[in-house]
Amino acid sequence: MKFSFTIISWLLLGVVLLVACPASAQDAKQAAAIAAFDDAQALMEKGQIGAACVKYGQRYKLDPQLGTLLHWADCLEQEGKFASSWTTFREAAELAHKKGDARQSIAEERAAALRPRLSTLELELPPDLPDGARISRGGTLIDEDLWSIATPVDPGTYELEVSAPGYTTWRGQAVVAGEGQVVRVPIPALISKRENAQEAAPLASGTPEPAATSQVVDDGDKERPNKGLFAAKWPAFVAGGVGLAGAAVWTVFGVQSIQAKKNADTVCDGPACQTEQGRAWRNDAYLAGNLATVGAIVTGVGVASATVLWIVLPSPAAKEYGSSPSKSLEVGVGPAAFSVKGAW
Questions:
Q1: Cα Dmax for the chain
Q2: Under CATH, what is the fold of the domain 119-194?
């Protein structure tokens, strides 16, 4: 008797567990659905429409209620996904009709209002599309019955692919922007892989490939060789600039030295000066003369270096057409030195 009572107890416990577990799972699913709906409402209030639509979709998958479907369709319309919203309102109208719900008219009216705003994508197929052809949009195969139908789509860029056994796959894009557009995509005839192989056969069988030829076309730009003149001969320009700077120093301080010497000669008797002003003018003449001498040296070095560099460096035309004269050049610029070494 005791043994029979134990068996009955275990059987009753099993029945209770079998009933309780599905109920627990259902409660968890219902709680997740409620949480998703609350999140969607909160996101809508914050203006985060796209994220809210995702939450409405999650709620409907967890608990497919008509109210959730209507909220979802309304959210999709606000997001600008008119085709998805239109489809969802149509689905809501069908669900309301099955349930005898008065909200069927609301869903139908909203769907009808969206109809003129829908953009459609239509494929213009070639007449000789091979047997076994497959067409996909965004990686999803399109049913053959829908190939020639203008399909409502949301705004966006769609990757299209047309393939068939033995043929080269065609890939393209369709861009749908705004609302109320009709986008037609012409699909070219697929090319047989055998035709491609036959075209490549002469080269593959050993026939030499024609040598590449090049031709220089005169485009009428008479200044073309000089476009890169500075880039080709910039060291010569730099050396010339140094020479010009030296010439400026030479001129300015040379004039000052001559003028100071003339002033000193008016108050000085030979090399001796009895006045402080005269000695100052003599000193100024000496200093200005030294600076003028430095300027003269720099001018000479700059002009000579610029001349050598201009001759040695290749012209822009030589660089452009690939000529490489047998010349080598090293230029060194230091704080107080400018050196040029070359061989040609």
A1: 153
A2: Immunoglobulin-like (2.60.40)
